[in-house]
Amino acid sequence: MFGKKKKIKEAPMEWDEGQIRDVDELVKRIVDHFATQDTHSLAAVHTGAMSKEQFMSLVDALLDQLQITDENLRQKAKEVYQKYTWGYYILDELINDADDVSDIKVVAPDKIRIKRNGKRETANVKFKSKEDLNTFTQHIAVKNKIALSDSNAIQTFTDKDSNPNFILRFNIMTRYVTSEGTPYIHIRKIPKKKYTMDVLQKMGMFDEKTKQYLIKRVSESTGILFTGKGAAGKTTLMNAMLEEIPHDQSGMVIQENEELFTVSHPDLMFTHIVTNRGEGKIQYDLLDLAKNGLLVDLDYFIIGEIKGAEAAYFLNASYTGHKCWATVHGMSSTEAMDKLADYIKYGSDYSKEDALRMLHSINTVVYLENFKVKEISEVVGWDPERRNLKYKRIL
């Protein structure tokens, strides 16, 4: 299908070489064409249906259409565009930076914020204009097979393939819902080289005693809840502890974005949600995946992050003998269980008190802050006078 040179659609205006002498302007024309007029070819090359060589022949055909005869200009524009297409443009240097940059957040064309070693700062790169940022946003949406429209103005997705060192989790809010007239883009970098418990200890997440306690709880605890603010290290710790699950045990991991994975366990399954990325109606949310998880032969039932009604199925799993793990936002090791009980209440007929009482099997709660384990509490029973769980502080 892609063996023959594809005929380029006529450019919307007549061009001559004298009109485009700047590399940046020429790259912009190429980007605009494949982000708006020939999105099919851009999507095809990123799905493997078209080779890079075939795609670049289309770029050459477009340059012919634009009557660009200066070979030096053509070559420079193609080099820049290839970085744009197979990378992420000006954000590449931040994405390719060492592990110390964990988050990249575009809040304005000239304001790109990063989190480096847990501290926020302004990066030294910027987009040329609002139009440059808008075009880039549309381009990465097409590249990742995402439709951005008024009815799909908030999108989250994962790019596992474009960078050799990091999984990239994107959250995009288009200008339809922002107040700035430009999109917001947040990129979370998840290292493909998984941290081990030993490495996390060296990084200062916990000491030797706490590490040994956590490893022991993998097998002995009937349930573990990881809590803290966003970017506290919850998912990173859970990911490391997955490798400590005994290999004669099975498990399923349910997650919104593909951040949790294994490098050694033979019997862990991983599922992710499918959102309405275009105008279609196909969608599988955490609730759908949690329902299905109860039908599978499992020892461990793990939800990457609980946000809503899926909490009720998490509770059901814990009541049917599964060892259940999850993350939830919370400000302490004890507050997290209250938050989880609220989610169960909203997603079921249980009262909050009933939900809390039934959560006793989630008997280990780990609170993290700024990539450090700050608190660990164990659930040791129910206090009928306070109508709340009783905790034993471990750390």
Outline the fold blueprint.
Layout: H1 23-37, H2 39-47, H3 52-65, H4 71-86, H5 92-95, E1 101-108, E2 111-116, E3 119-122, H6 130-143, E4 154-159, E5 166-173, E6 184-191, H7 197-202, H8 208-220, E7 223-228, H9 234-242, E8 251-255, E9 268-272, H10 286-293, E10 300-303, H11 310-319, E11 323-329, H12 335-346, H13 352-358, E12 364-369, E13 372-383, E14 388-393
Parallel strand pairs: 7-11, 7-12, 8-9, 8-10, 10-11
Antiparallel strand pairs: 1-2, 1-6, 2-3, 4-5, 5-6, 12-13, 13-14
Please explain how this structure is put together.
This protein has 395 residues and is an alpha/beta fold. Helix content is 35%, strand content 23%. It has helices at 23-37, 39-47, 52-65, 71-86, 92-95, 130-143, 197-202, 208-220, 234-242, 286-293, 310-319, 335-346, 352-358, and strands spanning 101-108, 111-116, 119-122, 154-159, 166-173, 184-191, 223-228, 251-255, 268-272, 300-303, 323-329, 364-369, 372-383, 388-393. The strands form 2 sheets. An 8-stranded mixed β-sheet has the order 9-8-10-11-7-12-13-14, sandwiched between helices. A hairpin with a 2-residue loop joins strand 1 (101-108) and strand 2. Helix 11 crosses helix 12 (335-346). The model is unreliable at 1-18 (pLDDT under 50).
